[in-house]
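call fold(seq) -> tokens
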Amino acid sequence: MKKLFSVLGISISLPEYVRELDAEIVEVECGPASLYLWRPCGGDSPMARWIKRRGRPGLHHVMFDVEDLPSAVDSLKRRGVRFLGGTKELPRRRQAFIDPDQAHGALIELAESWDRTGPRRSRPGEPKLDHLSWAVRDMEGARSFFALLGSEVTAASEDTPVFGCNHAGVRTAPSISIKAPSGDGPFARYIAKHGPGLHHIMFEVADLRSIGASIREAGFRLTPEEPIPEPHQTTWFVHPRGAQGILIELGEPVRKPVPNVAIRREAAASGTPS
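ret:
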């Protein structure tokens, strides 16, 4: 993973040992939120058990930052949200986990951090963590769930045909893209094999073809063979086999031409239609 992030131009921190999880952690330094990579140190550590049970590494959970965790948990419980155990106190934060069976197959951590520094901004030209994709069976159920958590959720609409799904957005930073199969496609196949849950993460890049060429030269596989054109961006995927079980989407936004303001002003002054 370090090699892949180096090719993408993303820095990562030095490893830090977390005693309560018996694991090493590195932070992927990209805006607007942090991405953490965990490596189990002991065979009976929580992450080690999770990888063994799942049969492969991958995306473990998503964390939402809250101001007052006990109040947030009490409020959500009154609305019918189920939690795994209670609130846990850690050296740097306190946390609570929402039952993944209720959260459409993915584990959600709510955390109140003591050393929070706020969102990180990407440097110019640096890839930006754009969104997290969530594969679900029930679109309206997933939309209702995120609305229950207090998030603003967009209406569902048809996604790019090659994906065979509908999608809706959850307004977080980075955003969450809910994907529900509407026919045969990668999301339907993923759910049939693994069940609903966290599907992939997406980085926005400035030059997809150039980044793609560098990734292939470094020995990683891109899928499909050519980038996928979408209405608002062009995307390519780094195969999870070379990325510790994580499917990574790279997207280059479609840049719309900016009108020449000087010419429009001149035309307006002369009375000529622009």
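The mean pLDDT is 89.
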